[in-house]
Amino acid sequence: MKFFVDTADVAEIRELNDLGLVDGVTTNPSLIAKSGRDIMEVTKEICGIVEGPVSAEVTATDFDGMMKEAAILAAIADNICIKLPLTLPGLKACKALTSAGHQTNVTLCFSSAQALLAAKAGATYISPFIGRLDDIGMDGMDLIREIRAIYDNYGFETQILAASIRSINHVQQAAIIGADVATIPPATMKGLVKHPLTDKGLDAFLADWAKTGQKIVK
Ligand code: E4P
Fold first, then answer.
1. How many Cα atoms sit within 13 Å of 20 on the Cβ side?
2. Does ligand 1 lie within 6 Å of residue 105's CB atom?
3. pLDDT digits (tens, 9 = 90+) for 181-212
4. What is the pTM of this model?
5. pLDDT tens, position by position, 88-144
6. Is 95 a catalytic residue?
7. Which helix (H) or strand (E) holds 80?
8. Torsion angle of the four alpha carbons 149, 152, 158, 161, in this order, in degrees rounded to the nearest 10
9. CA–CA distance, 201 with 108 (Å, rounded to integer)
């Protein structure tokens, strides 16, 4: 499973990238707003930090507007992936951009029917939003399971990018089901390492080691 970091905070991206955990980045208009930075400037900086795809989202809602914005975003760097909403104009733009050789990420997916359309439009990635489905009393993981089954039934190459991840369990379950990628908020990505028995075990090892009086580096 590939890990994308779901943020436009360059300090967080650098830290996680230095740990070797980052295969790509996803941003959206809300994350750009949270960064307080200019979209072009911050996206260019992110593209220089990570080698993998960096999703940058269009904000136009009509096909022509999306295509104009996509051309500007794609010119930022070679690793830009154009993020498009799951609407009819978004799917049309997805088809056109994919055919022109761009990477595409179709976002705001809440049903397997929508995911089927995105695959038929040639999307590189489909982004089902797990947490936002959980928020309305549904099980977001069911959607990942359904999309995995549909894509496998027909051999679609669109990669499932599990999004709106809120917990370590979301990452684990999405990996068990076979999502290709998880886009994870920085705090949750760092939280994946934690287990109380790891801390307890390390404390015990270090206490026993101190009793020996030995040092590995003399
Ligand atoms: C995905 O690409 C989105 O940026 C993100 O995962 C949405 O997460 P949220 O529902 O926590 O805002």
1. 0
2. no
3. 999 999 999 999 999 999 999 999 999 999 99
4. 0.97
5. 999 999 999 999 999 999 999 999 999 999 999 999 999 999 999 999 999 999 999
6. no
7. strand 80-85
8. 40
9. 42
